[in-house]
Recover the amino acids of this structure.
């Protein structure tokens, strides 16, 4: 019984980290240093780090639009990735 519970808890935490991995994957695919990507998106490096770490509860529309443009993805997709990280 305890093994099943441990697996379910592990699955929950793995799923919770998935959106962050998706954002990291998009950032890695872009191939730019964080500072350049942040500048291209029109946000601070700290803001980008906070988004990556899931510390932003609700990103501003201008932040999402700028980052989506910098990552070459739609704002709808980026919003979805960021929202699923909560």
């Amino acid at each position: 019984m305890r093994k099943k519970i441990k697996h379910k808890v592990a699955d929950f935490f793995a799923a919770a980290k998935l959106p962050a991995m998706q954002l990291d994957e998009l950032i890695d695919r872009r191939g730019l240093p964080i500072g350049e990507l942040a500048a291209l998106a029109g946000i601070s490096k700290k803001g980008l780090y906070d988004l990556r770490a899931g510390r932003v509860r609700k990103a501003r529309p201008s932040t999402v639009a700028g980052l989506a443009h910098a990552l070459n993805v739609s704002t709808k997709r980026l919003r979805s990735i960021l929202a699923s990280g909560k």
